[in-house]
Design brief:
It is a single chain. 19% of the residues lie in helices and 29% in strands. By secondary structure, the protein is α+β, with helices and mostly antiparallel strands. The strands form two sheets. The chain has a five-stranded antiparallel sheet. The structure holds zinc ion.
């Protein structure tokens, strides 16, 4: 089921999401809905707060940018290592029509759980690293536009 995507400045987007205690069918339903919603909106990532759920769950599919990377869902993702720094242009389904250059760590290591509740550890660079950092920011109530001076935010298209 597709869910509605909250749009900035909805105050829910600024709230910190709570950890998932048990990865059960309810969480798996949420993940399935999040993928459906993301694909429906032609996005490459989505965090649960963007569909009004205050839980630490993200989904990512950057295959339109790099087809070698499989879609993934991470529950309770946590960045445990950051290396380097790189600027890149980002957009967000919750901030339609805006793109901006954001400085992020070049490489990250993320720990969390998959949709079965199994522990996962993901080392990422490039677009996947950027997507992970962007989506995990959402879980802490941070939008990419919070990371750039507003004067630099340029209208897309
Ligand atoms: Zn976003």
């Amino acid at each position: 089921m597709r869910r509605d995507i909250l749009v900035y400045p909805d105050p829910f987007l600024a709230r910190k999401a709570a950890p998932v205690t048990v990865v059960d069918d309810r969480v798996r339903d949420l993940i399935r809905d999040m993928f459906e919603t993301m694909y429906g909106a032609e996005g490459v990532g989505l965090a649960a707060p963007q569909v009004g759920v205050g839980r630490r769950v993200i989904v990512i599919d950057v295959s339109p940018v790099d087809e070698t990377i499989a879609p993934l869902a991470v529950v309770n993702p946590e960045i445990v290592e950051r290396t380097g720094s790189v600027a890149g242009v980002e957009g967000c389904l919750s901030v339609p029509g805006i793109q901006g250059e954001v400085c992020r760590a070049e490489t990250v290591v993320v720990r969390g759980q998959d949709e079965q509740g199994k522990a996962v550890r993901i080392r990422a660079d490039g677009i996947l690293s950027r997507a992970l950092q962007h989506e995990i920011d959402h879980l802490d109530g941070v939008l990419f536009i919070d990371r750039i001076p507003s004067s630099e935010a340029a209208s897309a298209k």
